[in-house]
Hints:
There is one protein chain. This protein has 8 helices and 12 strands. Strands 2-1-3-4-5 form a 5-stranded parallel β-sheet, sandwiched between helices. A 4-stranded antiparallel β-sheet has the order 6-7-8-9, with no helix packed on it. Strands 10-12-11 form a 3-stranded antiparallel β-sheet. The longest helix is centred in the middle third of the chain and has 15 residues, at 102-116. Helix 4 (81-89) links the parallel strand 4 (72-76) and strand 5. The radius of gyration is 21 Å and the shape is elongated. Mean pLDDT is 82; it is low at 120-124 and 227-243. The protein has helices at 10-22, 33-38, 57-67, 81-89, 102-116, 155-164, 174-182, 191-203; strands at residues 2-6, 26-30, 45-49, 72-76, 94-97, 129-131, 135-138, 143-146, 149-150, 171-173, 208-213, 217-222. It has 2 domains: 2-116, Rossmann fold (3-Layer(aba) Sandwich), CATH 3.40.50; 129-222, Arc Repressor Mutant, subunit A. By secondary structure, the chain is of the alpha/beta class. Helix content is 35%, strand content 21%. One of its GO terms (biological process) is regulation of DNA-templated transcription. GO terms for molecular function: phosphorelay response regulator activity; transcription cis-regulatory region binding. One of its GO terms (cellular component) is cytosol. InterPro entries: CheY-like_superfamily, OmpR/PhoB-type_DNA-bd, Sig_transdc_resp-reg_C-effctor, Sig_transdc_resp-reg_receiver, WalR-like, WH-like_DNA-bd_sf. Pfam families: Response_reg, Trans_reg_C.
Amino acid sequence: MRVLLVEDDEPVAQSLRRGLLRYGFEVEWVSTGAAALAHESPYDVVLLDLGLPDTDGLDVCKALRARGDVPIIVISARSDETDRVVGLELGADDYVSKPFGVREVIARIRAVMRRAQPPRSEASPVGPDRYGPRLTVDRKAARVHLDGEEVALAPKEYDLLAFLTEEPGALMSREQIMEAVWDANWFGPTKTLDVHVAALRRKLAGAITIEAVRGVGFRLIVNEAGAGSPGQNSSGQGAGSTS
């Protein structure tokens, strides 16, 4: 997910940027309102400080909202109710007061992105998602099929697979996976994640590969040919694994 961060306080911006990158976000940082309005690269959500050096952040919020429907989250030291109300009336989707934690900002981002997604039409039901020639994931029914046969997955195994298949090929950190699949406040060891990854590798061998990147996390690769790649063993790790 691409984030445009508009913040003139460099320590705050760098800290927030590092935290977002750690959770798999792509972050473009600008420090002025003019730079925000001139930014041409596409982005999915805006984190906007109100105390900018060249213009009031509320004016930037209004201008960005006039351009389109990209979610805008105001992040500001202004905690006065009037500023909150004005920001929301000018088009902001949410308002976070400083100081804040990275986890809170991420939760707000995910919340506004869920609200921004158009509802699925009941007249046009969405069927199972297919990943390569062998694997389908039916998120509505929470069922997984391999070669047309249903695969029995434990609840957390299904949740892990559903999360990793949201962005095949993307590297997901351990912290990001634990927060999404287990608990946003998980601070203990993550050995349970390795156990569930091993179970998915065993049950879905040949259809997908779950690569481990040492010290970082995992990425799911769809095997389009429907079979394991050369050098693939039964654990789902190839000879060139980085785990």
